[in-house]
Amino acid sequence: MKKIQLYLRCCRLLFAFFLASIMSLCAQAQDGNIKIKGAVKDDKGLALPGVSVKIKGTNAGAQTSLEGDFTLNAPANSTLVFTFIGFATKELPVNNQNVINVVLTDNNQSLSEVVVIGYGAQRKADITSAVTTVKSTDFVTGPVSDGAALLKGKVAGLTISNPSGDPNAQSQILLRGTQTLNGANTGPLVIVDGVPGDLLTVAPEDIAEISVLKDASSAAIYGVRGSNGVIIITTKRSSGDKINRIDYNGSASLSQFTRTPKLLTGDDYRDQIAQGIRDKAYDLGNSTDWIKAVSKAHPVSTIQSLSFNGGNNQTNYVASLNYRFLNGVFLKSNHAQVTGRADINHTMLDGKLKFNLGILNTNFNDIPFNSNEYNQALMMNPTAPVREPDGSFYQQPTNFGYQNPVADMLNQEQPQNSYRQKYNATITLLPVEGLRLAATGSYTKSGYENLYYANHQDISTLRDNQNGVASIGQGQSIDRFLNLTAEYSKSLGDHRFTLLGGYEYQDDDTFGTNITNHDFPTDYFGVNQIQLGTAQKNGQDVINSSRSNSNLISYFARFTYNYKEKYMLLASMRIDGASQLYGASEPYGKFPSIQAGWRLTKENFMKDQKVFDDLKLRVGYGITGNQPAQGFLGVGLLGYGNYVLYNGTWIQTLSPSQNANPSLRWEEKHDTDIGLDFSLLKGFITGNIDVYNSRVTGLLYNYNVPSPPNLYPTTQANVGTMQNRGLEAVINVQAVNTKKFRWTSSINFSTNRNKLVSLSNDLYQASVPYFTTGWAGSPVTTFSSIVQVGHNIGDFYGFKVTGVDKNGYWIYQEPDGKSVAYNDFNHAFSDKQVLGNGLPKFYAGWNNSFSYGNWDLSITMRGAFDYQVLNLQRLYYEGPGIINYNRFKAANDKLFGTAVLNKNVPEEFNSYYIENGAFWKIDNINLGYTFNKPNWKYIHNPRIGFSTLNTFIITGYKGSDPEVDRGGLAPGIDDRFSYPSTRTFTLSVSAHF
Amino acid sequence: MKNTYLSLIGVLAIIGLYSCTKLNNKDYGTIVASQFSPTQQDVAALVGVPYTNWRTLELGRSANAIWRTNEISSDESVIPARPNGWVDNGIYQRMHYHKWTADEDNSFQIWTNAYAGISNCNRLLYQIDNNLIPVQTGKAQLEAELKVLRASFYYALIDFFGNVPIITKFDVPAGYLPPQSTRADVYNFIISELKTNIPLLSTAVDASTYGRFNKYAGFALLAKMYLEAGVYSGTPNWPGCITACDSVINAGKYALESVQANAFATQNQNSKEIIFAIPFDNVYTSDGSTAWTLHMETLQPENQATYNFQNSPWGGICAIPQFINTFDPNDVRLTANWIQGQQYDASGKILLGTMDKFSGKPLAYINQLPGVDSSQEVHGFRLGKYQIQAGELVGMSNDFPLFRYADILMMKAESALRNGDASTAATLVTQVRQRSFTNNPALATVTAAQLQSGTSVYDYGLRNHLQTTHETASDIQYGRMLDELGWEFSQEGRRRQDMIRFGVFTSKSWLSHSPNGSYRTLLPLPTSALQTNKNLKQNSGY
Predict the structure, then answer these.
(1) To which protein family does this belong (chain B) (predicted)?
(2) Domain termination residue (choose one: B275, B302, B329)
(3) Is residue B74 part of a domain?
(4) What CA–CA distance (Å, rounded) separates A621 from A155?
(5) How far does the CA of residue A965 sit from the closest CA of chain B (Å)?
């Protein structure tokens, strides 16, 4: 009912605006003047739509069209005043001219910039939702993992982290908190040049700018994929007049671990033997630093990119070649990527028909790191040699789950190669003024080939009699995309409209095969003659293939209205059909949004103040969605699975594979965002503040259902409600702005409060208002976290320690506050309590950039506050009970100053291992010198730079890095095997020719 | 010019029309049920489903299902903390201490797997009834088999939870929550289902009924129900048990193996002793929840070299020393069923320990155990009743005999004994014992007086690194019969059931275990079941 009322209200508003525009059209008819035509452009030659053209001293005038054109009737001796937010006002006498072309210069970038929004662009001044754009000049510098890492610490409310130092790992993105329990999309939708893609679609060096759509009113145009926000990447293109040039960028970097754990050394082992707390059989006579043994001494990474720009106003192109080699600190971990890209534009029929053609090819050659090798390096006896005197590797095959990691790395080969080819084309037609028809199609084919071979010297043969193990995984995925839009823009007096309508279709087809085999007669062929292994012939080992197919069908429309730059309105609607919901009763979803903006500085009451150049209040409301991750959950499914012995032969059974839920639908996020954009003292201070309140309803989760009568004890259904509320603020200060010295400083701050509001609806009544999730790892084997109605996502839930007794047994606190001895503590679920929360409550960033003459310097700092991290490395490696694997030095420390943990106490997940995660990082420092020699003929503006990443951290956290995995429902767990984070030093050179 | 525009618009329009407006409906991983109509060929694949539920219900890999629950909550075996782990958040220790809660995996696994089996039976019965599965011949027999199979899942539920919902329908209205029945009601339901349907079952004893309920498997289940009648319904029915056992014995289709080990061999599918087995295969039941991994769970990692395994065993479950001490040293079962002493690799070289105090010292399994909370590699005899073949994979190929002929004889013996016919009991028990005292046949004979004695040779009391106590075993009625069951049926996942029937499960101490409430003869209903069905009441005590 409420929704219907909202629609009606929108319709009424739209009608009122139409009426107003028709009335103003009538009012224009006048007599006794000359007709003036003209065009308004900015100093880069781009048309400026929406510029107000007034006859001085009157209220009469016009606005420029989408192409920047205007026509009006004015007295031949009058003066025209051109005003446009963000540009210097210009006055020109008519002097009886019939054609007046004007160039306006911008005087406030924060308003004049054009920002990419979903399916179009808007001037910053016209934006009425929470959209942030970062240009390449403000990106993080250095060998970043992917496009998202360029934005680290730059956008309020957008948290980007790299929880792993693995060169093959990607950034983790969290926008305005956790928005889903079990939806398909846990991170933002990534759009690359108008086509859905991901962070690896383009090389970071090819990115010109990135827009982040933070609130649902801006993301609603992306419908069922929009609830985690949208990241829109625009690649570098040719523009302007000086087109023909070659750009080169090159860098070399050196990485090191920021911190590694302190393990017992060989001497510590010998001390323990001398003290009688370790058997002398453990001394193997050497001193080995196993972390060093599995690490490279000087891992050098390099990035080389070359781009060619050429052509003319009618046909131009950009072609680029990018090579990235990221060298991991651990042995056998690296990432190589070669990307070739061409983007060609052609304009014909007087600019009424435009073609754009893009070709992209990316190839990855990766050596992925097997995280168990890090675990092995931590477990290895420090008195053991890497190699025995005879040159063979040290091994102790009878020690359970214990294998020389250096031997593993050298005896196992696991190259992973993949590629991606993308073709896209856009035809744009401008048949009549104001109308723009566009069709974009894209075809992306990607594939992978993951190979593995462990030779006869590997532990798999020494211990497990496998005689060579091989596996081949191969697959291919094809994504097709078609988008048709029609946009009509019109200026009528003080009114400016655009109307956009579109249809979009995309599908995805993925096919993969996997085969493993062992028992090879020789290592000679490695993985390349996998049929030589005999295990497959004996019915062992796996061979399988899989295919999946999904599509998304969408219709969308958007209307924008602008009155005198004072009042702005935007309304949109998207209808999405997702194949994941095939068979469910409602596969199509509707996702509306409405936004309004009010420029207070245009009001009379603010006319005389000198403080604010611009002050804009905006309010947006929108609905976005998130479809289920799996398909076909709405219908009954039968799967071949377990074998049964039937009349002497094993046959495969065919049985229902799920409880069907035909009322399944998408998660729905209802979001309100109120924002204020401001510019003070002629752009000296600019910034914005946003507050938002979002509610995700119909949370998807595998809810417990009664069994009997259900076959399975869980069913995926839309039940819960989650709320995220927050505040984001950004303040930019143009602190010094002289010819010689410039200093800009930008501070951003954000806070988010997440709450699970409910876990029940009419059909699914959760009798307890919580579920447990997360994993405290082996050997503890218990959940780590709880999701409770009325609480945050990310609560750690376990036993609370208050101390240890003199025998080294934990003293636990019962939930009622009473402390009890270890043996009297029941260790049951009811004895657990909330021990902390893994999601930071506050984030802050502080970016400074300086330039002095030819020198430039930028420093990015950022931090997260008020949260905890579960340190699983300490939980495991500080337990003194395990003696056949190495331990941290701290395993022998007295806890709470009382006693060393008793050897008979098994590893337990308790509050002792939950630490304060707050940190402040000086992350990216970038210093450069540009040779500004205009008389150099062949080289222009060469720059030499030195930069660092992950430079310095202030934190009380004891592990490698408190910026751990914050995704999902159990955030804040520092996994035992996770690749430690790295610090990088980079030297770079760039120039154009 | 206009024409160019028009043709371009035309092209765009064609692209638009050509592109799809239909949601993808092709699933490549599973079959959309509405797009599938089974043929005669699919019948076996469809009706075999609930038998796979017994596999996970009894032995599912890493699942704390029936077998493990019955073993490690009893005085026979234990999973102590090992230098390489096996603490797993204390679950095995809580099972030993009888301190389990409603959140344990055991309750959850037994409940969900038994009800999955029941739901599958109900669904198949509905589908066959409504001709959704085209069964052309033997429809009545197949329906009877599914009903007996369904009763067997209720047998698991009545044994562990007692008071559970009885549901026999598939097409229940949405949101239907079945009401809870009392243990006695569940007992009556199972008995009535068995009595009605056993006569319709196949009498064939061959590959066509192996691993399925034929008439004799039905009678074995009925005998089991009558044996437990006192526990389940409050009223014993010893004559009923004797009659059901006689139905199997008199058919003459089964016999004792000359050597007990034959019934537990890797290839035991042709054993004359097996009445109903859960079939396993190291290739076909090798993944995830379907593999049976006892050899992995009991042997130390070093034993990989003994059997040339492709994987390191995990080193966990072992015998409680007090239980081993009850064996007569001449009993073949002591040496045949329990792995003990120095361990060797396949070539005969002695194996050394690698962990903690026994690092570098001979790996020899000794009949000592410091406690459930602490152990070294050498502690405890390992479970070796089921043949471990050289080169075995992660899952074993031995079929698991749920009902075997020796059990029929012993059920009859116990019922006769309790029914006042001790001499028949003595004859039957002696018959079963004979193959285990081949070196000293005289020792095989058991007398009626011995069976009537109220003393077990089990030396109850705490026996761990913290505490040693002694408790009498002379207050156990028919204590000798309990001992006999222990010796013959060790490692068969039933010790808890026998101990409950003889009244010792919640009254005696062993190793680190002290009695912790007589209500512990039943498990608590799993929390998830209580949370989702408000008709369910938790068992008393929990």
Answers:
(1) Belongs to the SusD family.
(2) B275
(3) yes
(4) 21
(5) 24
* CB-CB under 8 Å, B118 with A708: yes
* A711 interfacial to chain B (CB closer than 8 Å): yes
Q: For chains A and B, what is the number of CB pairs under 8 angstroms?
A: 273
Collect all residues of chain A within an 8 Å Cβ-Cβ radius of residue B100: none
pLDDT at A25 (0 to 100): 40
Q: What is the CATH number of domain A32-107?
A: 2.60.40.1120
B361 lies in some domain: no
Pairing of strands A172-175, A770-773: unpaired
For residues A966-989, give the mean pLDDT: 92
Comparing CB atoms, the residue among B24, B81, B391 nearest residue A906 is B81
Please, are residues B105 and B65 in contact by the beta-carbon 8 Å criterion? no
**Alpha-carbon span A614 to A611, nearest angstrom:** 9
| DSSP-assigned letter for residue A888 | B
Kindly report the nearest CA distance between residue A363 and chain B, in angstroms.
Answer: 28
pLDDT tens across A577-610, in order? 988 888 888 889 999 999 999 999 888 888 888 8
Please indicate if any CB of chain B lies within 8 Å of the CB of A828. Answer: yes
Q: How many residues does chain B have?
A: 542
Give the tens place of pLDDT for each residue, B405-464.
Answer: 999 999 999 999 999 999 999 999 999 999 999 989 999 999 999 999 888 999 999 999
Of chain A residues 173-232, which have a CB less than 8 A from chain B?
Answer: none
Does the beta carbon of B103 lie under 8 angstroms from any beta carbon of chain A? yes
Measured between CB atoms, does B167 come within 8 Å of chain A? Answer: yes
Between positions 109 and 128 of B, the ones with CB within 8 A of A are 111-112, 115-116, 118-120, 123
B452 lies in which domain range?
429-521
Q: What is the pLDDT of residue A713?
A: 78
Give the Cα-Cα-Cα angle A595, A598, A599 (nearest 5 degrees): 140
Chain B residue numbers touching A538 (CB-CB < 8 A): 283
The CATH classification of domain A111-235, taken from the options 3.40.50.720, 3.40.1170.10, 2.170.130.10, 2.30.30.100: 2.170.130.10
Q: How far apart are CA A917 and CA A974, in angstroms?
A: 10
Whether residue B406 lies inside any domain: the answer is no
Please tell me what DSSP assigns to residue A282. Answer: G
Q: In 3D, which of B416, B378, B385, B400 has the Cα closest to residue B487?
A: B385
Residue B7 in contact with partner chain A when CB distance is under 8 A: no
Tell me whether residues A429 and B311 touch, CB distance under 8 A: no
Residues of A with Cβ-Cβ distance to B356 under 8 angstroms = 279, 883-884
Contacts of A691 (CB under 8 A, 6+ apart): A673, A674, A675, A725, A726, A727, A728
* CA nearest to A588, candidates A627, A549, A559: A627
Q: Is residue B285 part of a domain?
A: no
- Per residue in B35-68, pLDDT (tens digit) is 888 888 888 888 899 999 999 999 875 678 999 9
Residue A312 has pLDDT above 90, yes or no: no
**Cα A657 to Cα A654: distance, rounded to the nearest angstrom:** 9
Domain-wise residue ranges, chain A: 1-30, 32-107, 111-235, 759-792+795-837+890-914
Say whether B279 and A547 touch across the interface (CB within 8 A).
Answer: no
Find chain B residues with C-beta within 8 A of A587's C-beta. Answer: 23
Instruction: Judge: B354–A399 Cβ closer than 8 Å, yes or no.
Output: yes
Give the whole-angstrom CA distance, residue A971 versus residue B22: 38
Which residues in chain A (746-765) have CB-CB distances under 8 A to chain B? 763
Averaged pLDDT of chain A? 88
Name the domain count of chain B.
2
The reported pLDDT for the residue numbered A20 is 42
> pLDDT grade, residue A137 (50/70/90)?
confident
Residue of chain A whose Cα is closest to the Cα of B111:
A707
**A856-879 pLDDT, tens digit each:** 999 999 999 999 999 999 999 998
**Token pair of A284, please?**
């193997």
